[in-house]
Amino acid sequence: LDLGYEKRQVVSGIAKHYKPEELVGKKVICVTNLKPVKLRGELSQGMILAGEENGTLSLATVDQTLPNGTKVK
User: Fold this and answer.
1) Low-confidence residues of the chain: pLDDT under 70
2) pLDDT score recorded for residue 73
3) Cα–Cα–Cα angle for 55, 57, 62, nearest 5°?
4) Domain spans in the chain, listed from the N-terminal domain onward
5) Cβ-proximal residues to 60 (8 Å cutoff; 6+ apart), any chain
6) What's the pTM value of the predicted model, to 2 decimals?
7) Which of 2, 44, 45, 65 could form a disulfide with 8 if both were Cys (CB 3.0 to 4.6 A apart)?
8) What is the pLDDT, as a whole number, of residue 63?
9) How far apart are CA 56 and CA 69, in angstroms?
Protein backbone atom coordinates (compact mmCIF):
# COMPACT_ATOMS: atom_id res chain seq x y z
CA LEU A 1 0.00 0.00 0.00
CA ASP A 2 1.21 3.50 -0.83
CA LEU A 3 0.36 5.61 2.22
CA GLY A 4 1.88 8.76 0.78
CA TYR A 5 4.57 9.01 3.45
CA GLU A 6 5.67 5.34 3.16
CA LYS A 7 4.79 2.03 1.52
CA ARG A 8 3.54 -0.95 3.53
CA GLN A 9 2.64 -4.55 2.94
CA VAL A 10 -0.79 -5.71 4.09
CA VAL A 11 -1.87 -9.35 4.09
CA SER A 12 -5.60 -9.73 3.60
CA GLY A 13 -8.22 -12.29 2.60
CA ILE A 14 -9.57 -10.36 -0.40
CA ALA A 15 -8.00 -12.50 -3.15
CA LYS A 16 -11.20 -14.46 -3.79
CA HIS A 17 -13.09 -11.17 -4.25
CA TYR A 18 -10.61 -9.02 -6.22
CA LYS A 19 -7.97 -9.66 -8.89
CA PRO A 20 -4.62 -7.94 -8.22
CA GLU A 21 -5.05 -5.67 -11.25
CA GLU A 22 -8.40 -4.44 -9.87
CA LEU A 23 -6.60 -3.07 -6.80
CA VAL A 24 -3.84 -1.12 -8.55
CA GLY A 25 -4.51 2.59 -8.07
CA LYS A 26 -7.59 1.97 -5.90
CA LYS A 27 -7.91 4.33 -2.92
CA VAL A 28 -8.88 2.21 0.10
CA ILE A 29 -9.29 3.05 3.77
CA CYS A 30 -6.73 1.32 5.98
CA VAL A 31 -5.95 1.01 9.67
CA THR A 32 -2.26 1.82 10.01
CA ASN A 33 -1.70 2.07 13.77
CA LEU A 34 -1.67 -1.69 14.39
CA LYS A 35 1.39 -3.68 15.45
CA PRO A 36 2.91 -5.55 12.48
CA VAL A 37 2.05 -9.27 12.58
CA LYS A 38 2.87 -12.37 10.55
CA LEU A 39 -0.12 -13.70 8.59
CA ARG A 40 0.17 -16.67 6.24
CA GLY A 41 3.96 -16.44 6.65
CA GLU A 42 4.12 -12.78 5.51
CA LEU A 43 4.47 -9.54 7.46
CA SER A 44 1.25 -7.51 7.54
CA GLN A 45 1.63 -3.83 8.50
CA GLY A 46 -2.00 -2.73 8.58
CA MET A 47 -5.58 -3.67 7.74
CA ILE A 48 -7.74 -2.83 4.73
CA LEU A 49 -11.31 -1.99 5.74
CA ALA A 50 -14.21 -3.61 3.92
CA GLY A 51 -17.84 -4.52 4.35
CA GLU A 52 -19.47 -7.83 3.47
CA GLU A 53 -23.06 -8.77 2.79
CA ASN A 54 -24.33 -12.10 1.50
CA GLY A 55 -20.79 -13.18 0.59
CA THR A 56 -20.04 -10.05 -1.44
CA LEU A 57 -17.08 -8.01 -0.23
CA SER A 58 -16.88 -4.25 -0.80
CA LEU A 59 -13.72 -2.31 0.05
CA ALA A 60 -14.07 0.95 1.97
CA THR A 61 -12.89 3.59 -0.52
CA VAL A 62 -12.52 7.37 -0.83
CA ASP A 63 -12.79 9.91 -3.63
CA GLN A 64 -9.87 9.76 -6.05
CA THR A 65 -9.11 13.43 -5.37
CA LEU A 66 -7.71 12.74 -1.88
CA PRO A 67 -3.93 12.21 -1.69
CA ASN A 68 -2.51 8.92 -0.44
CA GLY A 69 -2.08 8.97 3.33
CA THR A 70 -5.01 11.29 4.06
CA LYS A 71 -6.25 10.62 7.60
CA VAL A 72 -9.85 9.52 8.10
CA LYS A 73 -11.72 11.62 10.67
Assistant:
1) none
2) 87
3) 160
4) 1-63
5) 28, 29, 48, 49, 50, 51
6) 0.85
7) 45
8) 83
9) 27
